[in-house]
Amino acid sequence: MSTVQQPDPRDRPARLTVGVVGAGRVGPALAASLQLAGHRPVAVSGVSDASRRRAAQMLPDIPLVTPAEVLERAELVLLTVPDDALPDLVEGLAATGAVRPGQLLVHTSGRYGAKVLDPALRVGALPLALHPAMTFTGTPVDVQRLAGCSFGVTAPVELRLAAEALVIEMGGEPEWIAEESRPLYHAALALGANHLVTLVAQSMELLRTAGVEAPDRMLGPLLGAALDNALRSGDAALTGPVARGDAGTVAAHVTELRTHAPGAVAGYLAMARATADRALAHGLLKPELAEDLLGVLAHGTEGDAG
To answer: Per-residue pLDDT tens for 1-41?
Structure first.
């Protein structure tokens, strides 16, 4: 349970006007959370119809304007655009004079640290990288989920306290990430969260094919326990046929997947090899059983190629 307590807005008189550039799933939720902390959203930009609807739901009565107008109206600007769009956006805003000295520019990309905001820094902006380590739905429930959510924080040393204070105001827990570690940090989160969704979706499809009427109900307790065990115990939580060295069971899995879900074979084999490596390294998989198991996995790979 999180020990972070949201401060009473009355304890801090200096409130900021807040703008959002990019009304995707993240920006409106963060702005709504800052609003609860006493800050004042004043402008938002969004291109697609979905973005505009999201902004209207999450930030009602806040005007939709151009990115340049957002920066003109706001003291704190959330740049919540896709990773690949962020460098060009920052360069463009700085080059056109939209960025003001002393303006707080916050991006939420996991990939980038504060350096991507250098063009804005050179014209006097205050750069902060605040990445919430959470998946977003684009609905009001996201604001509630920010409570206790870890944020990857990167900023110049002199702005570190300000960055961490903003995270705490949103109910989050700041975790300092060095500039050079941002890509690795982001890869780690993508490996765990994004790939998990793919694995769960594939598992549900296979269960439906096997005749299970409510795969979500079947998987919920199992996956919840597996996640809890993994977070508590790491590799010691490994179970299943790969960790046990049940080569025959794994071979049967591969055969069934080739018949019913050939698109899942490569992923199954890759994860099985990774699991076997970790189980071996931690003494869970006996070496004498590993040879047959690895032979099955190698044969499965050859079958894929042929």
So the answer is: 444 454 444 344 469 999 999 999 999 999 999 999 999 99
| Residue 168 backbone dihedrals phi, psi, to 5 degrees | -65, -35
E strand or H helix at 272: helix 265-281
Spatial separation of the C-alpha atoms in residues 105 and 216, rounded to whole Å: 41
Residues whose CB is less than 8 angstroms from the CB of residue 7 and which lie 6 or more positions away in sequence, other chains included: 37, 168, 169
**Residues 242-299: tens digit of each pLDDT:** 999 999 999 999 999 999 999 999 999 999 999 999 999 999 999 999 999 999 999 8
Alpha carbon 258 to its chain's center: 32
Quick one: pLDDT at residue 302?
54
3-state secondary structure of 28: helix
- Looking up tokens 């115990």 gives 233
Question: b/e map of 78-109 (b: 16 or more CB within 10 Å)?
Answer: bbbbeeeebeebbeebbeeebbbeebbbbbbb
Query: Who's near 120: CB < 8 A, 6+ residues apart?
Result: 90, 93, 94, 99, 103, 105, 127
Per-residue tokens: 167: 């995270």
Residue 209: CB partners within 8 Å, gap ≥ 6?
260, 261
Euclidean distance between CA atoms 273 and 298, whole angstroms: 9
Helices 287-305 and 265-281: crossing angle in degrees, nearest 10, is 160
| Phi, then psi, of 77 in degrees rounded to 5 | -115, 125
User: How many CB atoms within 10 Å of residue 215?
Assistant: 17
The whole-model pTM stands at 0.85
CB 189 within 8 A of CB 164: no
